[in-house]
Design brief:
The chain is α/β, with parallel strands linked by helices. It folds into 2 domains: 133 residues, Response regulator (Rossmann fold, 3-Layer(aba) Sandwich), CATH 3.40.50; 191 residues, Hypothetical protein af1432. The longest helix has 57 residues. The protein is elongated and about 100 Å long.
């Protein structure tokens, strides 16, 4: 442990050494100049500083104020030595960060006892800080492990839904990245964007509950079949809403709301405007744009220009107009992401890139 001794009288420093020499595991740093002591403190840390009050400027009070302002030494214990008994000086020293006082002439037994106590407290504080840092690291490791397992589970659920659908695995990859880009231009923070990247691919997870003869039907669905198909939004919500994590709650909001329309004409509940969760409103734009611009067993891909025009024309009706502004701003990056995750470049279902943000 480091003990800083500051006194303009060298004889006093010699006395301190003689009194404190039996304290184990201590390294002493002596200075007759308070300026030199502060220069040392700027690059080192002390566990205890014993400083004389009556010194050429900076005096003891000035030293304490400047010493305590140095990062790393703000928690050091300080004992001020003075021959003065004025309460005002001691009060000011306490305000500046002094922990204790010694009165000249210094009693050797008192100096040894108080120094030993201060160092014991410093040692205990250091151990507590080390313990807190260790616990913080353990908690961080455990949390990362839980998040990894959660993402792996979601990955499996999403892949299971995609295996039953007639869409490609890369569709869900694109949905995640498109949604993040729209969200970024809409002003979302990084934490929300991370959630959106992971939650958006689960938008159609409720299709695991849709009968095969409806889900895989190559032609147009009749009215009764369409009503059954629409229930995948509710099924997805029910699958995800029991989770307590922010990720699963976000995914549940997307599942139930990504087919709602801004003007209230969507399904399953006909919600409108801000009644529709923000993440669902973002995902709705991504989902429709990608569906229009991609080949499906029941349709050929629309030209990009026509797909963009369709989305923009439905600002304020099907889609949130503020998010359409963000979509328009994000288009150059969206088109880059569409090329990067094109169906022809990947084998189905390549889900991990979207779930882990690579």
């Amino acid at each position: 442990m480091n003990v800083l001794l500051v006194d303009d009288a060298a004889i006093n420093l010699h006395i301190y050494h003689q009194v404190l020499r039996n304290i184990p595991n201590v390294t002493f740093f002596d200075f007759t100049s308070s300026d030199e002591a502060l220069a040392w403190a700027a690059g080192n840390t002390a566990d205890l500083a014993i400083v004389d009050y009556s010194m050429p400027a900076p005096d003891g009070l000035q030293f304490i104020e400047r010493f305590k302002a140095i990062p790393g030494n703000d928690h050091a214990s300080v004992v001020m030595v003075t021959s003065l008994t004025e309460s005002s000086i001691r009060y000011r020293a306490l305000e500046l960060g002094a922990n204790d006082f010694l009165t000249k002439p210094v009693d050797a037994t008192e100096l040894a006892a108080r120094s030993a106590n201060m160092l014991a407290l410093a040692d205990a504080r250091r151990k507590l800080l080390d313990r807190a840092a260790w616990l913080s690291g353990e908690i961080r490791t455990a949390t990362e492990s839980i998040l990894l397992r959660e993402r792996e589970t979601i990955n499996c659920l999403t892949m299971a839904a995609e295996y039953r659908d007639n869409e490609t695995g890369m569709h869900i990859v694109r949905i995640g990245h498109f949604s993040v880009l729209i969200g970024r231009f809409a002003g979302l923070g990084e934490d929300d964007l991370d959630l959106l990247l992971l939650a958006a691919p689960m938008h159609d997870i409720g299709k695991v509950a849709t009968p095969d003869h409806i889900l895989l039907k190559p032609g147009k669905l009749d009215a009764a079949e369409w009503e059954i198909m629409k229930q995948h939004t509710v099924a997805g919500y029910e699958i995800l809403q029991s989770g307590n994590s922010p990720l699963l709650r976000s995914a549940a909001d997307i599942a139930i709301g990504h087919h709602e329309k801004y003007d209230g004409t969507g399904y399953p509940y006909g919600r409108a405007g801000d009644e529709i969760p923000l993440f669902a409103r973002i995902c709705a734009i991504s989902d429709v744009f990608d569906a229009l611009a991609s080949d499906r067993p029941y349709k050929t891909a629309w030209p990009i220009e026509k797909s963009i025009e369709y989305v923009l024309e439905r600002s304020g009706s099907q889609f949130d107009p503020e998010l359409i502004v963000a979509f328009r701003a994000a288009l150059p990056e969206i088109l880059q992401a569409r090329t990067r995750y094109a169906d022809s470049l990947h084998h189905r279902p390549e889900v991990p890139p979207v779930l882990f943000g690579t």
